[in-house]
Design brief:
Blueprint lengths: L23 E6 L3 H12 L4 E7 L3 H10 L4 E3 L2 H6 L6 E4 L6 H10 L4 E4 L6 H14 L3 E4 L6 H11 L6 E9 L25 H13 L2 E9 L10 E8 L4 E7 L9 E5 L3 E4 L5 H6 L19 E4 L10 E3 L7 H13 L7 H20 L3 E2 L6
Parallel strand pairs: 1-2, 1-4, 2-3, 4-5, 5-6, 7-10
Antiparallel strand pairs: 7-11, 8-9, 8-15, 9-10, 11-12, 12-13, 13-14
Length: 380
């Protein structure tokens, strides 16, 4: 996919985020995993949005996009998209990580509303610069953190809000996989400019969730390892976060886990919550299912529900099963559409992304130097 930001849209014309009639027209840059599995299907399933243009230079991906979205224009370069800028209301950047900042900068300078896949940038400083640019230009900017709408996360937020667990003491979150063979590509590259590795990939999710639940981080310790033969980037990482409110988050991301642990183990003063298994929405999207299609969206069977209890193991039937709140990835783009139409807040802001990146940077420093990194809660 050629997403070169060397040429950018003219600043004299920009998209209209308040188009009075008809759906808001979306341009999508990138049709790899993020673009084809997440963004294109979710945009197309959202009332008030229409997938207008897809950018990918890969011929096979162009053919896939044409088949899946016959009404969309397929172009090869970002410049071709910029040439269409006056006809677009939103640009979604789902291209490789290293292109996020230059492409988002070009869109914001042209006054085009933009959604950027996580991670927004390589550093918190870059994320804050984008946030400042969005503020100066009065342009909408949001970051796609879809895991805030995972079924288990929504369930846990409800349990915490209802006080069922008491005061939270420790939050354990695992995003683990068993992928002993390398896939190759930029996600597994060790080149710093690629922003690859699991710390910035799955780590962006687990850190964001921890900060949403428990607030600013004041201390970070991490262990990042490269386990698989021939691997260049971290594929087995642990992050310990101490929050300003005293909660400790222990976060695991791995591609080398032969036996998967619980997705969540949350320990409170009154009870604990243990939940196994991943939210089913990604698997459904990969299988070609779409929100609004046949059957309920985001629901999981009863045998996968988590359990709440104290003093007993959920593996032996201890604790009470808790119905899992259905996952709701469509809520993200519904909130984007509402914000563009009505001027509301972005569902995930660049400032929030910067706070997440600050923790990821601290984790990288901690692992490299073998130290614990102190953070200011006013920055986090």
């Amino acid at each position: 996919m050629n997403a070169s930001p060397s040429a950018s849209p003219s600043t004299s014309t920009s998209a209209s985020p308040t188009r009075p009639h008809g759906p808001l027209r979306v341009g999508l840059i990138g049709y790899g995993l993020a673009g084809s599995v997440f963004h294109a299907p979710l945009v197309s399933a959202t009332d008030g949005l229409v997938l207008d243009t897809v950018v990918t230079s890969d011929p096979s991906r162009q053919a896939q996009a044409r088949e899946a979205y016959p009404d969309a224009r397929i172009v090869s370069t970002a410049q071709e998209l910029w040439d269409l800028a006056p006809a677009l209301d939103l640009v979604v950047i789902a291209s490789p990580n290293k292109t996020h900042v230059p492409l988002a900068t070009a869109a914001l300078n042209a006054g085009i509303p933009v959604v950027v896949d996580k991670p927004l940038a390589a550093t918190a400083a870059e994320a804050r610069e984008l946030a400042a640019l969005a503020d100066r230009t009065g342009t909408f900017l949001s970051v796609f953190q879809n895991r805030r709408w995972d079924n288990d996360f929504l369930t846990l937020r409800r349990l915490i809000a209802d006080g069922e667990l008491g005061a939270i003491q420790r939050f354990e979150s695992r995003f683990e996989r068993w992928r002993p063979q390398l896939k190759g590509g930029w996600r597994e590259s060790g080149a710093p400019e690629e922003i690859g590795g699991l710390l910035y990939d799955l780590g962006s999710h687990v850190v964001d969730q921890a900060l949403v639940l428990f607030g600013p981080a004041v201390r970070v310790y991490a262990e990042t390892d490269v386990r698989r033969p021939g691997a260049e980037a971290d594929d087995d990482t642990f992050i310990a976060v101490t929050h300003a409110n005293g909660v400790r988050s222990h976060l695991y991301v791995s591609a080398t886990t032969a036996q998967l642990g619980p997705r969540f183990r949350v320990l409170g003063s009154r009870a604990g919550y243990v939940k196994y298994g991943l939210d089913p929405q990604e698997a459904a999207l990969r299988d070609g299912q779409r929100p609004g299609g046949e059957g309920p969206w985001g629901e999981e069977p009863e045998h996968l529900w988590g359990r709440v209890g104290s003093g007993e193991s959920p593996l032996t039937g201890g604790g009470a099963p808790v119905p899992t709140v259905p996952g709701d990835y469509p809520a993200y783009y519904a909130a984007v559409a509402a914000a563009l139409r009505e001027g509301g807040p972005a569902p995930v802001t660049a400032h929030e992304a910067a706070r997440c990146l600050e923790v990821l940077e601290a984790a990288r420093t901690s692992s490299r130097d073998g130290v614990t990194v102190e953070l200011s809660p006013t920055l986090s």
